[in-house]
Structure formats: C-alpha cells, structure tokens
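ARCHIVE CARD
CATEGORY: sequence design from structure
SOURCE FIELD: tokenized fold
FIELD CONTENT:
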C-alpha cells in the first residue's frame, strides 16, 4: 500500500468501544437491527463443520474450493480465528468470518480470508459487525493491519468495505481463483479481485467504525472527473455495475464486458498512483461509482 488517505494514528479500539458486550464463555453479544446476536469463536472440529455448509450456501463453492473445517481448526495457532454469529436459540450460525495471522514485508497482518452471511440475515448489517469484531480481536492480538480481497464488480461489497469500514485498494489481481470458482455466484466469469488494506490504527478507519463519519453521497463527488489514463486530477470516478447479480442473470456477455473494462481501468489507475478510497451509489439513477484518490509517493 502506498499509504492511506489519513495516516494519523489513534489509540487502538476494543470490542467494547464498538458496542460488543463480552460474555463469560469468551464470546460477545450485540444488538444488530432488531435482533440480539451472539458472536463466538469456533475452535473445535464439530462446531466448524456447519461453516462448510454456509460456504456452499452463500458462495456456491464446490468441495474443492471451500475452506474445510479440518483446515480452519488450525487458525488460532496463527493468531487468527473463525468468528460466527448466532441469532435467538438457533444452533447453526447465520454468518461467519475467517482470519489467518501472518506477516507481510516483516509486519504482522491478519488476512481476512472469507466473510459469509446467510441471505435472510444480511439486511441489518451483520457482515459489517462481523468485520468490526474481527478488527477488534486482531488489534488485541497484535495485528495493526488487515487485508482481504473482493470482487470489484460488487457494489454492495464496495459500500461495506470502502465506506463503512474505511479500507483502501491499490492492487488488482486477475482471475485469482479461476473461472470455475463459485460458478453459481460468479457466473463463470474470471474471478478478478481487488486487494484491500485496512490500517486499524488509522484515524480514518476509527472514525468510520465509531460512527463519526457519514458515508459520501452523490453530491459530494458531483464535480469530479471520470478517470481516464493520464488524468492529473487528485480525485476521479470509475463506474461499476449497480447490480452485478441481475446482470449475471440477464446478460452474461455484458457482465463479462464490465469485468474486462474495469480490469483495464483500475490496473491502469493503480499504475498511475491512484487508489480506490471511496464508493458512492445513486439508487434513483441505478448508478454506482468508485472514488479514486491519488496517493503520495512511497
């Protein structure tokens, strides 16, 4: 990462700062929407097996591509964790997040490998709460930074990762998992990914997690130019599909054209020193847009 937009550091936040109550069994609890949700780490093989079923349900992955319970059981040994969310008295989780501990360029970093939430539980923002809790646990264990990848065509993911969480991206990877990965969800498209970085000590991140910063709206970026190669502006816009799932269902060729166009645009922008730092949607017009910002040289 060349640098976050606001590198000013603040004191680490805790799960309690983010509204989570610590439970005697080592888990957490927090109201999410109109439900009281329990969160707990999963460390034993029997309790990790339902996470395999959730991966199939949410991502449509094959047995070859899912994260097996027998592999997930090792996560705590890396400093990572599988954190699951439960509602009411249901024994099965409705959501989960996976994190592996490791190093990048000699610095400790937590790789947030997968986040999945059952469709019936997404509207209240459970995915964001799982990510926030994962961040607090990462800080507690000595990881000042997190990273993960997302499909650049998914506007809903962009809103969560860029606006709610404050992550940034300046690296694009072509076909990370191969075209056969999660065909039911991705329609057989090349599985291109944006690499996101989340500096947890950054004031920009803390302000978003504590609700001090409102998400940007279309009026905030109305005067910005659309990105084109060679642009000298400090900020610029890049469009993406407002609803890629509808496009995958109705016009797969159009979805592929979006994939290839966004691939070329973002890779060029990153080479020219930009990073994706924001996202804005105009629901009335059915438009979605990335906000690029030119980063200082390393």
């Amino acid at each position: 990462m060349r640098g976050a937009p606001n590198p000013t550091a603040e004191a680490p936040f805790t799960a309690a700062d983010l509204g989570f109550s610590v439970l005697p069994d080592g888990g957490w609890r927090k109201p999410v929407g109109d439900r009281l949700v329990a969160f707990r780490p999963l460390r034993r093989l029997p309790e990790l097996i339902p996470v395999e079923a959730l991966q199939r349900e949410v991502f449509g992955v094959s047995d070859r591509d899912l994260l097996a319970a027998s592999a997930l059981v090792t996560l705590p040994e890396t400093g990572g964790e599988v954190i699951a969310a439960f509602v009411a008295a249901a024994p099965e989780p409705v959501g989960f997040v996976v994190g592996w501990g490791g190093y990048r360029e000699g610095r400790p970093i937590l790789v947030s490998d997968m986040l999945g939430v059952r469709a019936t539980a997404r509207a209240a923002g459970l995915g964001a709460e799982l990510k926030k809790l994962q961040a607090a646990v990462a800080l507690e264990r000595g990881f000042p930074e997190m990273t993960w990848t997302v499909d650049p065509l998914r506007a809903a993911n962009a809103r969560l990762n860029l606006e709610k969480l404050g992550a940034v991206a300046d690296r694009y990877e072509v076909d990370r998992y191969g075209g056969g990965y999660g065909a039911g969800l991705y329609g057989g498209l090349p599985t291109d990914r944006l690499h996101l970085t989340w500096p947890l000590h950054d004031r920009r991140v803390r302000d978003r997690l504590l609700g001090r910063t409102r998400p940007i709206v279309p009026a905030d970026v109305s005067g910005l130019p659309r990105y084109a190669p060679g642009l000298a502006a400090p900020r610029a816009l890049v469009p993406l599909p407002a609803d890629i799932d509808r496009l995958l269902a109705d016009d797969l060729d159009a979805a592929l054209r979006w994939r290839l166009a966004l691939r070329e645009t973002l890779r060029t922008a990153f080479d020219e020193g930009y990073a994706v730092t924001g996202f804005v949607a105009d629901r009335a017009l059915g438009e979605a847009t990335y906000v690029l910002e030119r980063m200082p040289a390393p």
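CARD ANNOTATION: Confidence is low (pLDDT under 50) at residues 1-6. Helices lie at 45-59, 69-72, 126-140, 155-164, 183-186, 203-209, 244-250, 252-271.
SHELF: design records, drawer C
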